[in-house]
Fold this sequence. Notes:
The chain is α/β, with parallel strands linked by helices and 473 residues long. Helices cover 47% and strands 9% of the residues.
Amino acid sequence: MAEKKPVKxxxxxxxxxxxxxxATRMPTxxxxxILEKMDKVxxxxxxxxxxxxxxxxxxxxxxxxxxxxxxxxxxxxxxKLQMLFRGQNILGYRHYADDVVENFVEKSIANGxxxxxxxxxxNDLRNLKAAVDATIKIKQREGRGHxxxxxxxxxxxxxxxxxxMKMAKEIEEMGADSICIKDMAGLLLPYKAQELxxxxxxxxxxxxxxxxxxxxxxxxxxxxxxxxxxxxxxDTAMSPFSMGTSQxxxxxxxxxxxxTEYDTGYDQELLAEIADYFAPYREECLKTGLLNPKVMxxxxxxxxxxxxxxxxxxxxxxxxxxxxxxxxxxxxxxxPRVRKDMGEPPLVTPSSQIVGTQAVFNVxxxxxxxxxxxxxxxxxRGKYGQTVKPMNPEVIEKVIPGEERITCxxxxxxxxxxxxxxxxxxxxxxxxxxxxSYALFPQVATDFFKYRQxxxxxxxxxxxxxxxxxxxx
Length: 473
């Protein structure tokens, strides 16, 4: 008998699955009734927070994301809860000071998070240091918290097996607890996964988690070869919200490894009950148009152009707005050129948007870099961090002539900001966590705080006559 080494599963239905398929719109009330059953499965972890859930909760669902986390923690006392954390960007769109990062890590763990998956859009490990160090500090102090560093998987001259092995060693030296290969565009092919996992396993003793999306149609096969090569954890989604731009289906992967040395031991009947619970919500999302059948198929262009699905759709809508849909192929050919000019970054938020938008500009203007976005300028300035390869000096000279570029860790230039942020929003503060919500999304959080106040006091401040300090009765 072969030695048993059951593959572990991170379940994504409460975060990435609905972020990928229905723009992160699943409300907390849909999640709560099924938590008790999910808690019995024996998952390695359930990803339920971070990524775009924070912004979407405040902006569209009028929910407090911190309250969601506390409710999920209460409903799943026996399962590790996991979140996605964008390094020095936390969950926002700019780099924050170290004190904001440390505070956010502390509050996330205090409210119920066990595993923090930390990534950077350029794979610049310096941008992960503050979050990893903060997690390690809490772990040493309280025995809770697990820092998982995610590497954004991509293709290109710079991304050799030696590159991934070197990164794995550096991650281990940073003190992380595990490594995730984050294949956001579904670019990792089955036999390449076997090679990659074998190489990384030879470089590190840390557990390796593989996260892929079904966009290109290969993720299930990729998981199979990765697990055979020694991958410890795979990310899957319950079938009603699996496949397409989401992850492979949990039940399918459980059945695939059944009876082998990788058998999860999960109960398929219990999984079927969980799937049956989510199925009507999926139907409702299809009916309202929240779930677009387009995102549920296979998009082979992802493999041909190595461009994530979201980036392609973004590009199409930009061209539509300019009545320039005929320029589609030209822009597709321009994307790899822009990416090369920018130092060959992985294409993931926000680098994918920066490269894609700049490629559209280059084609529409008829001259490359005649016009550059502020984000392109910041990337060239080094404000996002260090790219794997050097950037094109001619492009730098054309876009930001004579400017001095940043070579240090970008956050080293940001003063502590917690005290100032708290002073700015103190009238709305009802819990310490509110300060962090405001830090990440000042306007969106303020609107939410006003809405929350209106619910609590049954008074809608937006209806008040502020000039005369009167309120309609």
